[in-house]
Amino acid sequence: MKNLYWCWVAIFNKFAMEEQECSKTRDRHSHDAFLRCAAVVLPYLNSDELASVASTCKALHLISKPITSRRTSDASRGLENLPIPFFNPIAGDSQPYPYFFYTPTQTLLVRPEFRQPWGSGDDARMCTEEGRPDPFLFRVESASGCECARCIGDCCPCLEAGDILLTRECGPSCKCDPACGNRVTQGGVRVRLKIVKDERKGWGLYAAEMIPSGQFVCEYAGELLSTKEARQRQQTYDKNASMGCLTPALLVVKEHLPSGNTCMRINIDGTRIGNIARFINHSCDGGNLDTVIVRSSGALLPRICFFTSRDVQENEELTFSYGDVRLKLDGQPCFCGSSSCAGILPSEHT
Ligand SMILES: C[S@@+](CC[C@H](N)C(=O)[O-])C[C@H]1O[C@@H](n2cnc3c(N)ncnc32)[C@H](O)[C@@H]1O
């Protein structure tokens, strides 16, 4: 795909020269065909590539403009129920949006050559329950589930009383359908959100409306990694972070036995492919989001979801605690602004 990109750049450049030199004599038919082709290819380019192609000539600049504005108006490319726009209020910073691939659910390792179109006007419209990708990557064959038709009240056996940070939902082995009331986290984002840039913390996720306490906000989606892969990636991110060139979004969640030993560990990397949860910043006071492990009947792996831990006001930033351990005393500075701020972001052995 990289070669294909360079091939396109060469064609764009040739087109731009022709556009300038022989605009009167050029064959109108092939000119229009080229522009139609460009409209198909440009949404596959990343933000830097798009900017460089747009600078080659007026025609390509005009095609790239609506692509940029569609990207800015919805981070989710139509893959969520509601659009989630970007806002960059920082004077002198012209970055309209950060570039990443979107997945609304957990996904397996994505090939480096993968490209996702974004901003074509045909971005996926997955607003219907049927259109959403399956939230469960792996199923447990022959697992039992509920027989309820609608899971009303508390008679559904899947509604086991968990503690606040563990929830049980109906899943692939249940008879009920996606509209069942015990599948709260499986239908995607249902609250209005936006992504806003801060001078010191970078992009962050904000409430675009008042969100009451206990409301599901979003899942933490991204590439599901083995622990070995997660450790290797963390090393790479640590190296790159010290050069200040990317914001890593690798989440490691561990469940512990009463003895303190880890009994379950899930590694989800939203750095390259993820959802809006990759923009949630850290707060030393725990923020306003609870990280909840959601298990579903018949699903092999739990999913990590965020619920509001208190009422959140419109325009308030959504945050959670990245952890309590700070192994690197010279780690990244924290700008959470809470009265309990430790001054540096949490860091621990992955
Ligand atoms: C998961 S990303 C969050 C989104 C990120 N701000 C961005 O622009 O993509 C984690 C990174 O955000 C930044 N960050 C998160 N919380 C922060 C805080 N309280 N203070 C300073 N930087 C923070 C750090 O660079 C961290 O490595």
TrEMBL record:
Residues 330-346 form the Post-SET domain. It comes from the Eukaryota. GO terms for molecular function: metal ion binding; methyltransferase activity. It is found in: Chromosome. Residues 191-323 form the SET domain. Transmembrane segments: none annotated. It holds the Pfam family SET. The keyword Methyltransferase applies. InterPro entries: H3K9_Histone-Lys_N-MTase, Post-SET_dom, SET_dom, SET_dom_sf. Keywords: Chromosome, Metal-binding, Methyltransferase, S-adenosyl-L-methionine, Transferase, Zinc. One of its GO terms (biological process) is methylation. GO terms for cellular component: chromosome. PROSITE patterns: POST_SET (PS50868), SET (PS50280). Gene3D superfamilies: SET domain. The keyword DNA-binding does not apply. This is Histone-lysine N-methyltransferase SUVR3. It comes from Sesamum indicum.
